[in-house]
Amino acid sequence: MKHLLKMLDLSSQEITEILDLADQLKYEKKHDIAHPRLAGKTLGMIFEKASTRTRVSFEVGMYQLGGLPIFLSSKDMQIGRGEPVQDTARVLSRYLDGIMIRTFKQSEVEALANFGTIPIINGLTDLSHPCQVLADLMTIRENHGSLDGLKMCFIGDGNNMMNSLIVGGLKMKMEVSVACPQGYRPAAEVLDFAQAYPAFSMTTDPKEAAVGADVVITDVWASMGQEDEAAKRRKAFEGFQINAEVMAKAKKDAMVLHCLPAHRGEEITADVFEKHSAEIFEEAENRLHAQKAVMVKLLG
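The structure assignment produced for this chain is given below.
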């Protein structure tokens, strides 16, 4: 494992190793056991998309591991003024021990990995959100003890979250069912991957997708950068909501996860969100632990 670019690149064993290490680091943090495993290491954090959870969790995580996080806004970098990404990669590789980037195009993350000589971590792209999905898998496994054989249901947009959850869930031997409107399906390369798994299904009916689910997951209807499509998307996604009727189709003890921020009344009702808020905010915390595990694996 040289980089974390997308879930498609990880093996089942690598995912398990990351989750095991995340569990260990979380235990140590809860018991005030210091773990400066990255002392003397420096992580550059490039943000072309703003974030609350990604920035804070990576900064705090690197600090807890004994390293130095450096925030790099695209507004303050030459990459934001037209410098080729291949030049940025080769320069930063001489200063830093690793780069986390949160941006729009997956190709930019791939280019950093191809031209640089240090580990690259995808903090989010339009295609993939591997750090969030590792945190989701960690949260589900904490609750159930194992992932093998569980049914995961995702309702909403075929975005980076749906893409990454499909791949991560199937690689961890879960049944994965997704519901999305026509025209908002997952990426073609993800569907090509999923076709080899009989445990995968896709429908336009959220209730059908939720039948027998152990965990039901959603995300916002319009992601960052899609604000101009918000009205169109609200119409397209009408009915693609986690609500009491959908949850009645899932198992009685089904979990609900949301990567946040949540728009109550759109992709999830306020009642369902608050009923499952403990799970959702544990999921948010687990971003910290899962990302620390990734950093230790790559930079340690």
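Interim note for the steering committee: The chain has two domains: 7-129+288-299, 132-283. The chain is about 45% helix and 15% strand.
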